Amino acid sequence: MMMNYSTGEIPFDLPEEVDDCKDILKSNLSKPENTTGDKELYENVYYVLYGYGLPTICVCGFLGNVMNLIILAGKQVHRSLRRAEHAANIGLIALAVADLIFCITAFPSTFLPKDGVFYDTGFLTYYGCYCAAVISIFMLTSTWLTVAMSTERYLAICHPLKSRKILSIQRTKVAIVMVYILSALFNIPVFWRYSIVQKKCNNQTLYTVNMRLLGDDGNLENAYRACWAVVGNFIPLLLLLFFNICLMREIHRSYAMRKRMGNGHCSAVHHHSNDTEASNRITITLISIVVMFFILVAPSEILKQIAFLFGSDLSKNYTYLTIEIITNVMQTINFSANFILYCIINPSFRRTMKEMFCFQYQKLHMDGATEVGSQADSSCPTREKYASLRVHASTGGTMRLKNMANHV
């Protein structure tokens, strides 16, 4: 079937029994007079970033977050932390879980057909229908976990006396569970935003994922999007900005105080300095997570809200679509790069990782040596006898030396 790409129209009428082909074909055509931007640039960026960049980032994010869970949940880390740092560590573990699930759920999106047409009702069809809801859940979860950790660090650093009465490990766990539950409940309407539509085309059944409005008149859809903008973007950004400024100011004061107290040699001061340094490491880690959130996540969310406020059809604006692809990939990097971030800025994380891998290497080496030793014992039955003789001779020589010394 030939199509006129210059006008974006089908050059002849289709039979009535294949009217659905018109909708499918027309949805994949673009009229030059209604498009803006460089379409070729958009297609190249789409091919490179969605074809290679996004799956690579998701795989690296999966491996990195698995490493985060292994290290942060290790016994060595928990033994070296105080209560406040232990609560922050639990928050980092919960964040790693949310980021890990985000990477898993975002990975199949690279295999979705660009034209949105599916030839069966397999996994990709249902994934294309419901992936937006699942991804939104863990995006919101990750955002509010970051807010919750920032709130705890703000109380612990800026209001240490009050934080002792407010903060506890149990309350931290409850807050994490509530964030997961409320994020899932808040995104339930997104599951109804898309539907799978069956169409007939040339005696073949095709499926498309169509968007539908929440409610009949679109008012409910607009209200929900406005709520998402406030709860998912506006409030978290303001809170994170406020907490980050306060935490950076307190860290600056802490370093200045340690510099003034550095001339003393009191052990109590040194112990307090070590505790402050351990607390500051976690605080700096959290500040870095928030800064990375502002750089990588905020642009994508702001772009979506601007598009929503304009209310125009941007599906043929290739400049906007190109920027959207780039910001989406940036957003995926945010959920995948925490492992690299921890390795760069947190010496304790690097040391724990090194000790963990060294321990595993030594364990494997010792197991191998034990196996070789057992084989040697079975092949040489007199080895134990010779070893006992050496010990006896050494003991006897030592006793003779003691007697000579007493005699002198």
TrEMBL record:
One Pfam short name: 7tm_1
GO cellular component term of the entry, any: membrane
Cellular location(s): Membrane
Keywords annotated in UniProt: Membrane, Receptor, Transmembrane, Transmembrane helix
SUPFAM superfamilies per record: Family A G protein-coupled receptor-like
Presence of keyword Transmembrane: yes
Protein name per UniProt: Orphan G-protein coupled receptor 51
Species, as recorded: Platynereis dumerilii (Dumeril's clam worm)
